[in-house]
Amino acid sequence: MLDKTGIAKRIAKELQDGWYVNLGIGIPTLVANYVPDGLNVEFQSENGILGMGAFPFEGEEDADMINAGKQTVTINPGGSIFDSVTSFAMIRGGHVQLTVLGAMEVSDTGDIANWKIPGKMVKGMGGAMDLVASADNIIVAMMHTNKRGKSKLLRQCSLPLTGVKCVRRVVTNLAVLDITPNGFKLIERAPGVSVEDIQNATEGRLIVEGDIPEMS
Hints:
- This protein is an alpha/beta fold.
- It is 15% helix and 25% strand.
């Protein structure tokens, strides 16, 4: 199966030249480190960065240069910094072609829950609701199961929703799956993972058609 870096590398293959891409907190931030050669992709951070680059090397961090998850980042030549009003005008105006988010749960109809666990204190929704409502394409990056081994790919989300029927693709440590009207469609298997492994780890409806290739 994949680790977090492997998930990010697989999602990086989804990038297209000229896209503006928002990377959420957690695994999604790693995607900026693995942009394929020759692609011109602009990463946007909702706290007010356009042209965000890879993570800095140790000793080269700038404490004032952070992403939405408060991690130190770099800015590529030509990048810019601005206020959150401008940032969310970009997002709400439909100028972001792809959003990559983490999630606690995803339903097989494309619902996503990624901002709150009842009973636990949170600072707020953040920008997730704006992002899932505005992006043309939403990919979720997450582990297939939680720490207790329970599936995070469900028939119906049990946690408060961030967005409804908005997720298009899910990349986990076990598989790549597309959201269809009939459930999760298995597209690729992680190295060393069988279709049966994925079936056992998926609570939602799972569609398996033909031979499922292993991720390269």
